[in-house]
Amino acid sequence: MHRDSLEFDVVIVGAGPAGLAAACRLGQLAASRGVELDVCVVEKAAEVGGHIVSGAVVETRALDELFPDWREQGAPLRTPVERDTFHWLATPGRGLTVPGPFIPRIMHNRGNYVASLGRLCQWLGEQAEGMGCHLFTGFAAVEVLYDEDGTVAGVATGDMGVAADGSEKSGYQAGYELRAPYVIFAEGCRGSLGKALERRFNLRESADPQHYGIGLKEVWNVDPDKHAPGTVVHTFGWPLDNRTEGGGFLYHAEDNQVYLGFVIALNYENPHLDPFAEFQRWKHHPRIRAVLEGGERVSYGARAVNKGGLQSLPRLSFPGGLLAGCEAGFLNGAKIKGTHTAMKTGMLAAETVFEALQGDGQSRPRDLTVYQQRVEESWVWEELHRARNFSPGLHQFGTTLGAALAFVEHNVLMGRAPFTLHNRKPDHESLREAGKAPRIDYPKPDGVISFERLSSVFVSNTNHEEDQPCHLKLADPGIPVGHNLPKFDEPAQRYCPAGVYEIVVEESGTPRFQINAQNCVHCKTCDIKDPTQNIDWVPPEGGGGPNYAGM
Known about the structure:
Layout: E1 5-7, E2 10-13, H1 17-33, E3 39-43, E4 57-58, H2 61-66, E5 79-80, E6 83-89, E7 95-97, E8 113-114, H3 117-130, E9 134-137, E10 141-146, E11 152-157, E12 160-162, E13 168-173, E14 177-179, E15 182-185, H4 192-200, E16 212-221, E17 231-237, E18 246-252, E19 257-265, H5 275-282, H6 286-292, E20 296-306, E21 317-318, E22 321-323, H7 339-357, H8 370-376, H9 379-386, H10 390-412, H11 453-459, E23 472-474, H12 479-488, H13 492-495, E24 501-505, E25 511-515, H14 525-529, E26 535-537
Parallel strand pairs: 1-14, 2-3, 2-15, 3-9, 6-17, 15-22
Antiparallel strand pairs: 4-8, 5-8, 6-7, 10-11, 11-14, 12-13, 16-19, 16-20, 17-18, 18-19, 21-22, 23-26, 24-25
């Protein structure tokens, strides 16, 4: 195969907060030293921010360091948090507001901003382009390139115009080789290239398994009389049981909008659980429904999130490359935030790479182990160390006792617990057999407050070229019906938030596993939760997938 090759000083994979912060920091360093630097950011979404989903309450610590004058420059952070509210939902109709003194200190949000992370990434992209960075949107990085000695040498983007049968359609265009001495991988949670790099370089040798949640989000326009800009609401309890970690959020943003959603840890045990349906019925609780009644849903999205914390971080460097942001798993689960840590690790990656590039080609280091040291000496490491027991504590002790432990750790011990908990069981191994787990009777959506999957996918603006190879690869096509269906009632039917996977019963009565790849919102849940790890999510043709606006 012939592919055109483009040479850069640095290639960055992913235009999320980590990748764009790295690009901006490289631009700043080059300008301060008066040197030319050729930086490329490759992004699979059709435009920057198109695949970004986050709550989001943004802590500005890293942004303050990167752009101290971000307010004057017009960064889209305009709604400061005015009040924090936590509700324990006891039943479908009852709840209790948790008094402020009983909320772990680390969860307080004063000083933060309710914002669209997608819009913030668009703004960061504009800053990066203004510094001369090349942004290649609509190009999916599908392969890591290596030198003869095994050093990472760049990435290749996927071919465009390939038919489902593998043939070349009219308008076919081969992918590009984007080559550089150093590559910063910032694909976000469960990046497909990052997963391959972890295996090749054994980066997880000394780490706990990474753990994940599935986050689902909607944006609503609400009645102005019910809108309270800067109000941040979190809930725990119903509709989940004490052994299922998760909870809801409702953030009052600007312009009479609220961002609301639900996160469920992917170590849940009941194969009948349906995260999308749990989110929809949660909205009917009076404390949530009261805000939404009379409003209109305008957008929907879903994305896996890291939650393993410090113990689940892999080794961060390898010959020719670095991992930054949620690619490595820097989200702080106790704070329910990862934007600031993603940006800071992207900045540290940029500083490490820039320093390495100052030597000539012969003296440049291959494996930038100093990056690991920089991260461990930064406030990111200190912050994650203080929060290291949050996720494994909830897993070991359940929601109630786990929350009590978090309170003691952060309000009494001030994040200095003399012990470290672990969770060494991967999320995909947690399911009980379907016959031994209680079935869950979910109410039908009413089309006003709650909705079904396909209408939700519609408002996510998801689109894929239908005549292309399926990007959801099955290692063994017989496993879904032969193993997962009898043992787990094929949970892909439920854990996918976009209706991608179905069990279709033929006229003969024979079940068949159907993949509706065009519905995929790129959340990566299937890649994580499939009990036999039979599904491999790889990027589809560049530019495909959701096209989020303001998520």
